[in-house]
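Dear Dr. K.,

Following up on our conversation at the group meeting, I've run the structure prediction for 2-methylcitrate dehydratase from Agreia pratensis. I'm pasting the input sequence below exactly as I used it, so you can double-check it against your construct before we proceed with anything downstream. Let me know if the numbering doesn't match what you have in your notebook.
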Amino acid sequence: MKLHSVRVHPSSDSLERADQLAHAIAEVAADPVAVDADVTEMIINRVIDNASVAAASLTRRPVVSARSQAERHPYSPGSTVFGLASDARFSPEWAAWANGVAVRELDFHDTFLAAEYSHPGDNIPPILAVAQHAGRTGAELVRGIATGYEIQVDLVKAISLHAHKIDHVAHLGPSAAAGIGTLLGLDVETIFQAVGQALHTTTATRQSRKGEISSWKAHAPAFAGKMAVEAVDRAMRGETSPTPIYEGEDGVIAWLLDGPEAAYEVPLPTAGESKRGILDTYTKEHSAEYQAQAWIDLARKLHNEYPVLVEHPENIGSITIHTSHHTHFVIGSGAGDPQKYDPTASRETLDHSIPYIFTVALQDGSWHHVDSYAPERAGRADTVRLWNSVRTVEDSEWTRRYHSIDPQEKAFGGRVEILLTDGTLISDQIAVADAHPLGARPFAREQYVAKFRTLAEGVLEQTEIERFLSVAARLPELRADELAGLTITARPGLFDGVATPKGLF
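The predicted structure tokens came back this morning:
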């Protein structure tokens, strides 16, 4: 890897294209390096993972809404949309939109956390949609996805967006555009223009993840993917982007991020170096914000080891979670959001409330993507009482480990202290989720397949489940005419009675 130095330049500097971050990203995307076997294996896993969470969300309102929008834009050759028949084709940017919402709705697919936060699996819907539309092969799709992951991971390692209340999808627009550029074999100049346009159109504030969290949380990455498809289309037609988009004196860094004096070192693969960023990422066993994954696992453990916590919750005086700065201030009590303790809050809000999540996982000894968020579950009197006893505090050591660049030390958990009314203190800690590569039960192909089967049950017919898994396993060998098989068709009758919202078209 080579560190690309990035800082703000006044217009009088006339910064050369070759010295701009967007150009360096484009050079990585245009490099025809082969994809390593273990990277290909993980790409297959994540294609399966995306389909899993999409299947579980097919009848949820935001997904129905986005799918209905895509259905208004039929196109040939076009792209497939999750839930619909594989021979139904739609304009690729709208297919990317609908599939992106389906993948993101349950907050249940992969993650990468460093200087910024991300869900790199969000790259797959737009890249796959363009691959289907453009008649590309499975091998070409694999190359495109490898680039999408690589660029997003590299940006996330170096540039914090959340510190300036900018939503993390500002790294997704450029990475998806770069991945599409690789997929299509575009030249450096075209990818450069597409990356700049994608970044320019996908910067937004983090209010979508603050306070009363709305359904836009699921739409935000889908919007970034849609913008990436459109940016590539414009760039292929010869249209240009604001330049330099990152380094300009009125650019993203100067006015949205760390300001005119900012400087970053972005790691990027050198020419001929494999794109292995996907191997730094990790998926979710549970449908909740990633920082909650380890806490669900620890709560399950405490549920089994200390029956008194479950049988006599009235004996619990307080629960204090010692954790990282991010967990405390974003999904913990440090956020200062009363909605995180509101039993009538939206699902999107509850899956960003570690006090709620830890309480329910401790009481139930399990976590379910639907049942754990049900209004009747959130409103249970004993749950509300215990929930309000939970507070988080920042612990400097867990913050240090959260930001560590050493994968053996990097952690997303912390220590919990449960004080009983008789003075007894129960304490335990966890560093990473059980499903993490360094966790108690790391996810491999077997676990990805099991997750798909679980979430697809009752949603897809058994023959469709087997068909999809068979096609996904052959991803690198798929012909262009087989790529439409990388979708899922709902069982007959699933959408009966599901209201389709009306809009402009």
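Two things stood out to me. The first strand starts at residue 2 and ends at 7. The chain has two domains: 2-280, 290-430.

Best regards,
J.T.
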